[in-house]
Amino acid sequence: MRVVIAEDAVLLRAGVQRLLADEGIETVAAVPDGDSLLASVLEHRPDLAIVDVRMPPTFTDEGLRAALEARRQIPELPVLVLSQYVEERYAVELLSGGAGGVGYLLKERVADVAEFVDGVRRVARGGTCIDQDVIAQLMARGRKDPLDSLTEREREVLGLMAQGLTNTAISRSLVISDGAVEKHIGNIFAKLTLEPSSEEHRRVRAVLTYLDHG
Q: Which residues carry this modification: 4-aspartylphosphate (predicted)?
């Protein structure tokens, strides 16, 4: 696996690079700012970009904006955000972009090496890895409960999805057809404004919404 690291703190940048090297993961570029990140991913086409949120020159959201631009230019680029903060505006745009290969971890998680490396590999494979604290902060923005728009039956289906049941198992549990289950799930995705993407990714996001609001 080949990665690009964008982190302005020299010691943390070197530490993450060394940690990854110990796991057999090659760092093809380690850069201090968003412009260098974009240039590096375009040059190296890595398997993953690990990006800090706040970098020079303003130390606000340069990293996330650079990551979003990188995803626009290389749509399949997996991105793992590693930050002390949750920047809501761009984080929501990144996480709800409708594609896999995305993660958002708080830097304190790096202390758990196994968990961090697992997240790195999962995102590089096209999966998701989102810190529970990040989810909590993003979902607690004072919005109307997104589950309010669901019918009673759709809530039942989503609840069974949260238990890990397949569509076939849900149809047996509710004594309805597979087609009816698929229709309910489609309605759930639409009402929760989950953009079309892989079924697994949207299903996980729907379940996360249910667990946070159900």
A: 52
CATH architecture designation of domain 146-213: Orthogonal Bundle (1.10)
The percent of residues above 70 in pLDDT, for the chain, comes to: 89
Q: Is the pTM of this model over 0.70?
A: no
Helices (H), 98-177: 113-124, 132-139, 152-162, 167-174
Q: For the chain, which residues make up each domain, given as ranges? A: 2-139, 146-213
**Widest Cα–Cα separation across the chain:** 59
What token pair was written down for 132? 């529970």
Q: Given this model, what pLDDT does residue 14 score?
A: 94
The number of beta carbons lying within 10 Å of the beta carbon of residue 200 is 12
**Which two tokens mark 68?**
């979003």
DSSP run (H or E) holding 83: strand 79-83
Per DSSP, helices labelled H in 103-149 are: 113-124, 132-139
Contacts of 20 (CB under 8 A, 6+ apart): 3, 26, 27, 117, 120
Q: Which CATH number fits domain 2-139: 3.40.50.2300, 3.40.190.10, 3.30.240.20, 3.40.50.720?
A: 3.40.50.2300
